[in-house]
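Interim report, section 4.2 (structural modelling).
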Amino acid sequence: MNSNVWILTFADAISIATTLILATLGAILTERSGVINLGVEGILLMGAVTAFLVSDGTGNLWLALFLSVLVGVAMSAVHATLTITLRANQIVAGLALVIFGNGLSQFIGKPVEGKTRPVTIEPLKLGPLSDIPVLGPILFGHDMFTYLTWAGALLCSLYLNRTRPGLVLRATGDAPATVDAQGVSVAMIRFVHTILGGALMGLAGGWFMLARGTAWSQAATTNGIGWIALSLVVFAAWRPLRAIAGAVLFGFTLQVPFTLQGQQINILPPEIVQMLPYVATLFVLVMLSTPRARRLLGAPKMLGQPFVRDER
Amino acid sequence: MGSHRSGGATLFALSARQVTKRFPGVLANDRVDFDLLPGEVHTLLGENGAGKSTLASVLCGLYKPDEGAVLRNGTQVRLTSPRHGLQNGIAMVHQHFRLVDRFSVAENVVLGHRKLPFLLRANDLEDQVGQVAERFGLPLDPRAVVGELSAGQRQRVEIVKALYHGAEILLLDEPTALLAPPEVEKLFETVRAMTQAGKSVVFVSHKLGEVVDISDRVTVMRDGRVTGSVARGEADTRKLAELMVGRDIDLSPRRSRGEARETLLSLSNVGLTKDGVDRISQVSFAVRAGEIVGVAGVSGNGQRELAEIVAGLIAPTSGEVSINGERVNGVGTRNVRKAGLAYVPEDRLGTGLAPSLSIVDNLVLTRDRGFLVDRKSAHLEAEAFIKQLEIKTPSALTATRKLSGGNSQKVLLAREIFTAGSNSRVLVVCSPTRGLDVGAVEAVHKLLDEARNAGKAILLISEDLDEVLTLADKILVLYRGSVVHEATGDQVDVEAVGLAMAGLS
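Predicted structure of the assembly:
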């Protein structure tokens, strides 16, 4: 078999991982504050369709990505308002967000359906690094967002573990009453991080559309990547750096069947791969179903629980 | 009693002047005066609902008083939040610790401190926290993970946290509730070290016995008012109890009258292994008709497992449990109840009663075994219980969750002991008075005593040592799942029991 094919598969895996890492980081920040946002897939779709429409209309790549981020902010702000201010059930609100994002993106994406991608995010030219055999094309043939995302994961990790606001964030997910007693607003911490997380998810959707998607094809555009990101949070035990490893692994799993198909090796029907996001999500939900498992996995203790100050 | 000092002579560290605080339907504090001297240990004593926690919450800035003022060093302060209270040197340690289990001691202590730099260096923080702990003689490892610490150690973390944030006045809400006797002694040592450093400590407590030892002054509250303030030396338990309850109450020991008869419940070599750990090992004892056997111990030493084994909720991995001579290992709750067991679990509202069902419906739960229920007679029975046991409720159709702890416990005990047709002769009771006030404790103890005299065999599992000492004819101490100490009720060596509870026998 051609070794070049496998090099391309690895390179693709790392490329897909960029979206996964961005969305997973967003989910980690959100969940560390104690809010679970199941709406990732909906935000990704809305981010993607926004990026497509804006770049199709203006040809401006940066404006397209910026508006994807804004859409992510707006959608997660809805989630935050529902779950933090109005104390709605977080699971239900998240699922509603998926259905909403799915439907609205189909509606507003109707006119551009079938069109090809208007602009492309170009890979960086890293000169001699890209010429290293094998490793060059795998690691150094990507666009700037891939590298920024890796740096972002590192920053997230430092933020969580080495800074004052990171300490407060971790405490908010585990013991909001403690944070409240210190005179810090739990609602504010949760709002800020849910929205910050949403911004990253919006960017993940926008980038995915413009760097990897070929055309806007409704829900099939992201094809369940948002659900995989949610599973990755658990896989990464809510730690940003582990998310990179998990994302590359999942990216590889997603890419291999296409490679095999291209090589006329049909050991796995493509439908099985399409099931992967949902199987992974089911797996995660089962894993998270017992308090003991949640503790062992390191889930924020008050994940999914609205905070109410116990007053009479 | 109630000696009045003029404002000029003494400068109080903290005072409440005519503080009134209302909650919907409740007057929690009614023109309350309270004074705390620098370097003083002052206990706020009262039953649950007497308003002492409300007063403490006003003093620390959690609640704003509706009327009246809080004075710090003689000057009025308007505290807007616990954080604001802390800025004035006032901190409260709540009964339920507000700690992050997954954080280290140091991280917990520094959390929320104003002067924390943006970038944190773990080593520096650990050193600082270690120094504060050492200064007050509080042994603590700043690197330890809080989730792995005992209740006493966690309390120390809370205290160190308050001190690190600059507290001069520490309000401790029911500080001994979760501690074993030796840990209580350590807490008292810490309190003495703090008062020697000029800091003041307020104990909020409903336990009469222990407060007398440590306090310089005891202020007693009832129904939102201060009923008296007694200095050290003038305070005796009986007088304080009267101030608390407003009438003479009987907390003297109650023992079995008459001969204990045939054995109704017996355990022989019962063991339980879970996840490779022995939760219960080699426990053997018998409970006879007309006696109470008390199991004492610090929370988490197998009491819960023991109760659940006897109640048939879990099957023991070894040994034998028999009721009325019938072997009941692993036959299931329904059959255990058929064999004659009644069970009053610790979690009275969640496990014992159905919280959103009425008193009548809760009685029906165990009363009727057939397909149809006889509500009419259940209603009559409920009315009779309400009258006989003085259960305070608007009606027999009130949901049990709306009752106070004492009243819901009475409903549960009534169901388990007295319902018509109940053939239960064995009663397992777990922490029956946890969270109840003195009046309700007396009522529950009276009920259990009556049940004993009616010939029931009662197994009382309680973390409240005083309760076990008051009621039990025979006392067992459970430590790490084994019975490490046994004594008969009249010849009990309290110190030996305390040491056994801490695993030091």
